[in-house]
Amino acid sequence: MAFTAADVKALREITGCGMMDCKKALTETNGDKDKAIEFLREKGLATAEKKSGRVAADGIVYADVTDGIGVLLEVNSETDFVAKNADFQQFVSDVATQIRTTSPSDVDTLLNEKFVNGDETISAMLVNKIATIGENITVRRFERYDGVVETYIHGGGKIGVMAAFTLADASKADAAEFKEFAHDIAMQVAASNPAYLDRDSVPADVVEKETEILTAQAMNEGKPQNIAEKMVAGRINKYFKEICLVDQPFIKDGDMTVSAYTKSVSDKIGTEIKIDKFARFEKGEGIEKKQDNFAEEIASMVK
């Protein structure tokens, strides 16, 4: 598989490695980007986690909790200007109302539903908004949680988080200490971007792949087998502390983990608290926005 200078540049942006190292990695892996990332990691040259792809799409991440039902929703537009448009924001709010009311299984189902407060389908409403506003708009993804739910929006819709909790005594959900705790957890997810809730949530194949990479790193450092195994065990433990919410250092007090913070609040309010799940949306993550070359565009118009 051939590769281009653009592939080398993209690999550098993902891994933070030098251009020559990226070129060598792509050469060794026949241009396979994912394998090249693994190659660089095994050589100890790349960071432990792939950086997310360029985040270039605009729009908004929206969150709402009404009557114990939480909705986290991302709707994309072409420009930030449109994301601030009142018509666009009303459409986003309407879509959230639909999700909360009908609990659709996915975006396609949602789009085909008739709006609960009107006669059109959500898809028809979307087409109408595109025609009215003059930009492409897409409903990208959503989550819907029932029960004790907390949401947090950062940067006017750049990042949104929703978390769900269970309390042994549900009446304690109104306690000020719990409300502060729930807000802290949502902020933790926004700031630290954990991939999983706890170690049991991490798929076996993910742990296996990470173990393989860390083992290759240790062996490439020239460590004996028995020393390498101990190093890998320590590094896997550190890996879990980075990717698992409950194992992360609490953002307001790095001396305790999120798990320890949860227990301390449980003790204060006199009932067990369990973090059930969470969702974190970052506006446009993984979507590459077209980069317009206005000089070329004008030149082509002149021709």
UniProtKB/TrEMBL annotation:
From the Swiss-Prot or TrEMBL record, state where the protein is found. Answer: Cytoplasm
| GO CC terms | cytoplasm
Highest taxon, organism lineage: Bacteria
State the InterPro entries in the record.
EF-Ts_dimer_sf (IPR036402), Transl_elong_EFTs/EF1B (IPR001816), Transl_elong_EFTs/EF1B_dimer (IPR014039), Transl_elong_Ts_CS (IPR018101), UBA-like_sf (IPR009060)
> Keyword Cytoplasm, does the record have it?
yes
Q: Which Pfam families does the record cross-reference, listed alphabetically?
A: EF_TS (PF00889)
> Does the keyword Cytoplasm feature in the UniProt annotation?
yes
Task: Give the region (Involved in Mg(2+) ion dislocation from EF-Tu) as residue ranges.
Answer: 79-82
What SUPFAM superfamilies does this protein's entry cite?
Elongation factor Ts (EF-Ts), dimerisation domain, UBA-like
The Translation elongation factor EFTs/EF1B dimerisation domain extends over 70-285
Q: Write out the GO MF terms.
A: translation elongation factor activity
What role does it play?
Answer: Associates with the EF-Tu.GDP complex and induces the exchange of GDP to GTP. It remains bound to the aminoacyl-tRNA.EF-Tu.GTP complex up to the GTP hydrolysis stage on the ribosome.
Q: Which PANTHER family match?
A: ELONGATION FACTOR TS, ELONGATION FACTOR TS, MITOCHONDRIAL
Q: Which family does it belong to?
A: Belongs to the EF-Ts family.
Return the protein name: Elongation factor Ts
Organism of origin is Congzhengia minquanensis
Q: Which gene produces this protein?
A: tsf
